[in-house]
Amino acid sequence: MNTKRAMCPACLRPQTGCICRWRVPVESAVELLILQHPMEVANAKGSARLLHLCLPNSRLETGEQFGEAPLAEWLSGERRAVLLYPETPGDASLGIPAAPPLDSGWLAAPEKLLLVVLDATWRKSRKMLYLNPALQRLPRLALQATPPSHYLIRKAHAPDQLSTLEACAWALAQLEHAPQRYDALIAAFDGFVAQQQAQAASGAARQPSA
């Protein structure tokens, strides 16, 4: 069997780059809906699949523009949907209305929250927001005072930019008032990053010299 082409059915990566060993199940009170841009699916540096594997109380859907009916179904239910996204003053220029305010009373009951996350580059996430009006109608949660990112394998455009996994881990910790509950998730991410760095170094070493 050619192991280079065999795919892991869980993490959807080649067996040679399987990341399932970093899977650490962590129960969350908040439910998570991860909306992944199609360009992130095959990105070896992406962290959303590992995030989904580690959080049993999560759902991962892929697309750029989602159908109104399925998106409405995912957002409906007893939980209150909140979009993990910063306030963006330039939204009006794109025709995106201002997000409704987040009711502070919601934050007192994290077990009743659905955290919606866009797994995409900043530019693609803006497009996903533009193309999906149902997301525009969600109140937003912006992260505050986050630690430096451990995302050493992907270039950030700002010091406070985090990977999808890191952003969700910090958001869940803040919402659930459990600063250490997601330490295992961050440790798993560190292992994932180290694996990607080792594979990149190995690939560079195999390149013929000029």
Short description:
The chain is of the alpha/beta class and 210 residues long.
Helices and strands, with pairings:
Blueprint: E1 31-36, H1 48-54, E2 58-62, H2 68-75, E3 80-84, E4 113-119, H3 122-131, H4 133-136, E5 140-141, H5 164-175, H6 183-206
Parallel strand pairs: 1-2, 1-4, 3-4, 3-5
Detailed description of the structure:
- The structure is a single chain.
- By secondary structure, the chain is an alpha/beta fold.
- It contains 6 helices and 5 strands.
- It has helices spanning 48-54, 68-75, 122-131, 133-136, 164-175, 183-206; strands at residues 31-36, 58-62, 80-84, 113-119, 140-141.
- The protein has a 5-stranded parallel beta sheet with strand order 2-1-4-3-5, with helices on one face.
- The two termini are 33 Å apart.
The portion of residues forming beta strands comes to 5-15%
Give average pLDDT, whole number: 87
Please tally the β strands and state the result: 5
Radius of gyration: 18 Å
Main sheet properties: 5 strands, parallel
Strand order of the largest sheet: 2-1-4-3-5
Distance between the termini: 33 Å
Low-confidence stretches: none
Shape annotation: globular
Report the order of strands and helices: EHEHEEHHEHH
Number of helices: 6
| Helix content bin | 25-40%
Structural class: alpha/beta
